[in-house]
Amino acid sequence: MQAAAVVALTALSVFFGVDCLTPHRTKPNQIQQQDVRTAQSNEAGRKKKNQPHILFILTDDQGFNDIGYHNPTIKTPTLDKLAAEGVKLENYYVQPICTPSRSQLLTGRYQIHTGLQHSIIRPSQPSCLPSHMDTLPERLREAGYSTHMVGKWHLGFYRKACLPTRKGFDSFFGSLTGSVDYYSYGSCDGPGLCGYDLHDDEGVAWGQEGKYSTTLFTQRARKILESHNPADKPLFLLLSLQAVHTPLKTPKSYIYPYRDMANVARRKFAALVSTVDEAVRNVTYALRKYGYYRNSVIIYSTDNGAQPFTGGSNWPLRGRKGTYWEGGVRGVAFVHSPLLKRRKRVSKALLHITDWFPTLVGLAGGNISKSRGLDGFDVWPTISEGKESPRQEILHNIDPLHKPGKGKTWAASTEGASGRDITKPKKKVLRHQPKQKSAFKVKTPKEPKPKPKSKPLPKLKLKPPRKSKLKPKLKTKVHPQSQRPPHYKLLLKSPSISGTSRPESQPQVQPGFKSKSRQTISQNHNLLRSRPPQPKSKTQLELHLKSKSKRTVSRYQNMSQPEMLLPTSHPQDLWLQPSQPVWDTSIQAAIRVGDWKLLTGDPGHGDWVPPQVLPTFPGSWWSLERSITSFHKPSTHKNIWLFNITADPCERRDLSDQRPDVVQRLLARLVHYNQTAVQVYFPPDDPRANPDQHGGAWVPWVDEEEDEEGKYNGVYKKGRNNKKKKKKKCRLCKLQTFFLKLNTGMMSNRI
């Protein structure tokens, strides 16, 4: 019987291919695979345990003086307590307007690297974040996070690929445009172009009219916290509140505590801040209730400075929203977390909104190396432990499209780098003609006498063409948003400062470089946009070659032209000679390096606006503090400022005349950053965006297959037809209409 059983088992083993007689043995490879899987699961478990839940609260237009711990008249008990128990960031910077700040938060890159240098993204513009660029929620989702966004987006929505749910967020509830009514959720992009703007994921959230937006957003945030399991997966929640942006609408119960404020706009603005405080109280209560708080990081930040015209205050800082003065870019922020190693303190470390990308990805255990070209730094050791900040400088922006005002003279006429008169030409002046686009006119004698060929400058050969044109037009090459223009080699030697070494990436002088009559100009649009081209006529050549001792070339010539070759000189000599420029100071730019801050071009309205304590608006209190009278001549337009922000945070003492060495050093840094800038992408309005064509709501209007970015080929330039239409508009009528609406709204909102 036993023999028969053995034979039967042997037959079965042969039939099924299984060895039934020998005991089962695990192979060595299987054991190794099991060990690896066990180790990976344990590591994943520890990683999940160490990954904190992240709550980022972003407010809109909250100024430096619009929070309780800076101004006791503003009642924000919740924010004050969270900040006091955490770390107050008192040297923290954002951008002066909405879209650039939000883009730098989500990408970790300066706006010169995203094409959003110029302005905000308006509802009708076919623009958004670059499609090839990764975002913060995408990196956190790769690290295992559940990502959600509630509130204001304002980063473009012309196609579905631009929506928050396509940029890394698992869910989205809020508005896509920049300014929405708090109750009706109506958003307008000019007269008669209005639509409904409240969205749930990728659909329109109809039927929410009458509900206050701050309350509605808070309820959605609490719902997300309630439905999510904190032990199962870490959470990233971006609560981007619409408050305290205009319109100044808030429930009357929040206005009552500020009834003693004489100024109506300030009273309603303060009430909006109180609604934010209550929203933060409700959300942080939900964190504690549902088990998030012990392993959470709460970050509170504004997106830009306040607008005093609408009740905000940046006092005692200079400037306002939309400017590069401290009032426009120094933001209110703090971090609250049980994970902080050093709490209840004030941090003076230099931080920027781009730093949140690498900081939060690193805190979540993500891979920062996948995100190339980041401009931010991981500053968690700085915030948590009080270590020195790895950030030493901030590029606030370089905007080549911000044109100077009318009546400004170019460098050949008056100004030096610090606003001083360095050269004083008598007859031959190169002036900007406001009525002509990119056109320049040269004033010459009535009967110019023919002269023999002038001797060329050293290493500079210019061959005039046969035909003379006194009004050449400047042409630039533009690029699609997704393409970066090739880097140019600047043929100017940046001065070296005593005691400091010049960065390795700074451009070097290339001797022996000869030019031709039709030498192509470098494609760097930033420095090229506001400079006159090389002269083409003999008369123009005489203007450039006649003077040998005072100047060789115009200080506002294209910095990237290969024709310009300058001998090596001492920094002081370079400062005193307008023939050896470093940067076109008519371009709007701002940079912070260490204690020093440099502004060029037009940084914006630079008044110090005191607290709005008087009943009139903007009336008498607006005149309490005006800009300090300029010491240079009225005919000279100042376009460069230098401040020691550490010693002078209110920017009351301009040191550009006293410290030309620092000016040159910071101008060289602007040149360095400008070499990496991409083409500005600022397309025209698309009539297809009209909400009337989409059921009365703002929704994406471009198909995914359509190449909208390449359609406009970069920067939009209005044609002659559009220009004629613009002339027909009555500017005075528009101004009267604006003040009429402003006065009507103020009187209707008066309590």
From TrEMBL:
Q: Which domain of life is it from?
A: Eukaryota
- Give the protein's cofactors: Ca(2+)
Q: Name one GO molecular function term.
A: metal ion binding
Domain Sulfatase N-terminal, residue spans: 52-365
Question: Could you tell me which InterPro entries the record lists for this protein?
Answer: Alkaline_phosphatase_core_sf, ARSB, Sulfatase_CS, Sulfatase_N
Q: Could you tell me which residues belong to the region Disordered?
A: 27-47, 388-553
Signal keyword on record: yes
Q: Where is the composition biased (Polar residues)?
A: 28-43, 495-509, 518-527
Instruction: Give the signal peptide range.
Output: 1-20
Basic and acidic residues: bias regions:
388-402
Compositional bias (Basic residues) at which positions?
Answer: 425-440, 451-478
Give one Pfam family, short name only. Answer: Sulfatase
Q: Which UniProt keywords apply?
A: Calcium, Glycoprotein, Hydrolase, Metal-binding, Signal
The family database entries (PANTHER family) matched by this protein are listed as: ARYLSULFATASE, ARYLSULFATASE I
The similarity annotation says:
Belongs to the sulfatase family.
The name of this protein is Arylsulfatase I
